# Entry
Amino acid sequence: MRHLEVLKKIFAVFHEAVYIVDKERKILYFNPVAEKISGFKSDEIEGQHCFNNTLNHIDDTGKKLCLDGCPLLESIRKNITTDNYVYLHHKTGYRVRVHVRSVPLVEDGVVEGAIEVFTNETEQNLVLDELIFQKELSMVDPLTGMFNRRYLDERFYHDFKESLISGGLGVLFIDLDDFKKINDIYGHLTGDDVLKTVASTIIHNLRSHDYVFRYGGEEIVVFLKDVNQDELVRIAEKLRILTQASSTRGLRNQITTTISVGATIHKVGESIYHAIDRADQAMYIAKSKGKNQTILI
# Structure
């Protein structure tokens, strides 16, 4: 690839993440923004092939695209530009939604590889701004980065007043499956790492106006504004699939866990704690039916 060094200089100052592969899908270049979004340094990625599956791209169904359905491979084989939304596996373990554009790299009329440009499409800017602000008020759980029970008790009714009156507020009650077994086998520090991975996957894959809380232990509650039952289940299933497809990296053993999810719609006029209890009951039904599933009541 004759122009590789020139391309490196160009993409080194790009505001978007970029990597370049040859026609065998060997990664030749990984720019600084790609490092920032993925958590991997260039020397951890360059020289590998896409199908080594380090970035471990999946779609909404959990399909492993680096092994089957790679957009880069389609660009190379068909000499076309492709656009897709995928979820990469951050180095620390959580999932990040990115838009990927794959462009064939042609020299002298021959496709010699492809360039992939990707951008972080996580809808969370408002959530993260609010988390930073609330951290100053000690309303954020220090382990997971989620809001804590203090925020729920002191600020929830103010921030969700409109949704509580107008309706359409969805509640998800999430519990990690077999979390006690993880703590017993690997220790509580490893258990904390697993919990942080799950929390990060959830935080990075919610909409900007959704809120997530560590309710207690490994229990997580999510509030979703302006949803109906179908949308509520769709979002719950997305979080469940992404959690199952993630693993806590950097440990002696990569640990994958699943979640059981209870879902309900808050009824106008009822206490939010009643809705949480109902979602909690649905979660226990999911546990009793074999875990790793969503139950709506």
About this structure: The chain has two domains: 4-120, 125-296. The beta strands are 17-22, 27-30, 82-89, 95-107, 110-120, 170-176, 211-216, 219-224, 259-265, 294-296. The domain at 4-120 is CATH 3.30.450.20 (Beta-Lactamase).
